[in-house]
Every structure is written in C-alpha cells, then in structure tokens.
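pinging the channel bc i need a second pair of eyes. not urgent but kinda urgent?? the chain im working w is below, pasted from the shared doc
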Amino acid sequence: MTIVSSYHQPVLLKDSVDGLNIRPGGIYVDVTLGGGGHTREILARMKGKGHLYSFDQDADAEGNITWENNCFTFVRSNFRYLKNWMRYYRVEYIDGLLADLGVSSHHFDDESRGFSFRHNSPLDMRMNKRAGKTAAEIVNDYEEESLAHIFYIYGEMKQSRRIAAAIVKARAKKPIVTTGDLTEVVSPLISKEHEKKDLARLFQALRIEVNHEMDALRDMLLAATELLREGGRLSVITYHSLEDRIVKNVMKAGNVEGKVSQDFFGRIESPFILVNNKVITPSIEEQQENPRSRSAKLRIAEKK
C-alpha cells in the first residue's frame, strides 16, 4: 500500500500505535485514515498477519491509497457506522481501535474546503463533500437562537448571542457565502487581541455542526465498546475539550455522560481499565515540528 505522506503529518504516532498493543493476527480499526500515517504504522507492526480496516468519509483521503496490501480494507464511510460495517465484513470482535480526531492539516490548507478563516473561500466545511448541509446553509438558514446555541456549546463563545444576532442582521441584506463574508460580519464583535482564537472557535463550532461530529463520536465509541474483545485497546487522540470529555467519560464510566455506577464494594463498574491515568501529550519537539499537535491529548483504555 502506498500513501502520500504530504497530505497530513500524524500526531503522537508512536504513542498512539503503542497504545494498541498490536498482536500479530489481530483485527484492528483506524477510524480516521486521513493521510495514512497511523494506518501505515499499524500495518508495519502487524507484519502481514491479521487485518486492518481504515475509515474515512473524505474522497481526498481515499485518493491517497493504492490497493497493494491483503491485510488492509478501506471503508469509505463516516466512522459513526463502525458497527454496521463490521457486521457487513462479518467481524464479530476487534482487538484494537485508533482514532485521531479533529481536522487534518490538509483540510485547513485546502482553500476550496472553507475550513479556515485564513483563506477567502466558499463556506463549506463538509468532511464528506457528497452529502449534508454546508456551513453557508447553516449560517443563512438557522434561526438566531440555534446559531447562538451552536457557538456557545461547540465554540464555548461567551459572545455567542451577539454574534448570532449580527449574522441574522447581515444575511437579511445579502447571503453569507464565503469565509470572508463571515469574518467580516463577526470581526467588529471580536477584540484584535483574541481575534485568531475567537475566529478559530467560531469556525470549530460551525464545523462540528456541519459534520455532526459529537453525535458521530458518541456512536463510534459506544460501538467500539461493544466490538472490542477482552484485552482489546482503545487509543484516541482528541484536540478540544468537548470531544476529550466524551472520550474520558466512556473510558472511565462506559457511557458518554460519565455517570459512574459502583458495585457492592464501591468499585467503579466500567467496561474499561485505563492504561494511562494521565493523558499523553506531544513532546516539545513534536509541537514545534507539527503545530496541529499542540492541543492533542491521547487517552488509552483496555477492555475488561
């Protein structure tokens, strides 16, 4: 299998794949193929035994693959359908699952995708360009209250209501169709000191809504909990507090809400044992080489 390395630089490569504790002959899943860095490393450690299923809904990622490895299957789908696809391939149990969440550097760099406020491009933000609402449709069609909710919950923006009101007022005059249109509308409400940070939060909130990222993450983690066999590993890299909280809750309590149940002796009942009680973060060297890694957190758990 040949994968183009320039597409995306993998984050916490060694630590995340080490976390899978790969056994030759095992069945593994990489639910975020992207540029293929993690997939390539997993395949190398499998040494031609077992099988790896790698998911990605983005056609750009699919274009990076040539079919030269009998141990590998690409699944062109959102990872929220993990359980359905494993049933389709008649896989009853898996030995490990790796997820590198968030957006690849490729998406930020591709001006045509609308993921970054650094470029003036169509306001799209869809991971899967073949389906779903664009960010422009959400910005122009959602009610003011719904927009405020998205910016507050997914972007953790204190000025969410003011921004939503400004968008509704602006779109009444003309549609907001590009990233430049959007930044022009909200910039007066953002201090120059925090401009990049606040715009990043705004774009993050829209991206999460466009791609239903939180719902997809919940579905995938619950499916992984069912599919992992005893001793199987879950290795997940997160980039913001919303997704990290969900991953932490599932690993600690077995549910996305983090509701802890205890047995008669007061021991927490969870399907997982934490492999690293403290999150693993990238080294200073990696953060300097790969800016995307600066907010990364790796959590690893083993199925009981």
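so Residues 1-6 have pLDDT under 50 and may be disordered. and Strands lie at 27-30, 51-55, 72-75, 94-100, 228-238, 261-262, 268-269, 272-274, 297-303. — does that match what u expected or am i reading it wrong
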